[in-house]
Write the structure tokens for this entry.
Amino acid sequence: MNHSFLIGLGLAASGCACLYLSASRQNWLARPWPAGVSRLVGTVLLVAGFVALLQSQQSVAAAFTLLTVAMTVFMLVPYVGAWLSARRRR
């Protein structure tokens, strides 16, 4: 597996996490991150992840990989937040 592919996956997942943490209804933190800065950083990380994926894949495959990672992360982060909330309550 290519290093740029793994870096691209990590950057894409980090970008999605930054976008999630800027949302007002996120469950990971007591207060959401500042929306403007967090959304900008998340977008930059997603673009950087796409560029890293382009180093190891063709453009259509890189776009598909990025969107699949984003879809998976955005599906998982609310469940992780619910798990963290339930763990804090105990």
The mean pLDDT is 90. The CA atoms of residues 13 and 64 lie 14 Å apart. The longest helix spans residues 59-89. The radius of gyration is 14 Å.
